[in-house]
Design goal:
85% helix
């Protein structure tokens, strides 16, 4: 369970970082990034 918790914590922080980076990027990047965002991590 501890390993799962560590994985989830890292996964959520990585996901939040990616989303915040995508939000800061110009609009022309969004369409290119969309497939990666919608794919299961």
């Amino acid at each position: 369970t501890l390993r799962r918790y560590e994985f989830l914590k890292c996964h959520m922080s990585c996901k939040a970082n990616r989303e915040s980076q995508n939000r800061a990027k110009p609009a022309w990047n969004l369409s290119r990034n969309q497939p990666a965002l919608s794919a299961p991590a």
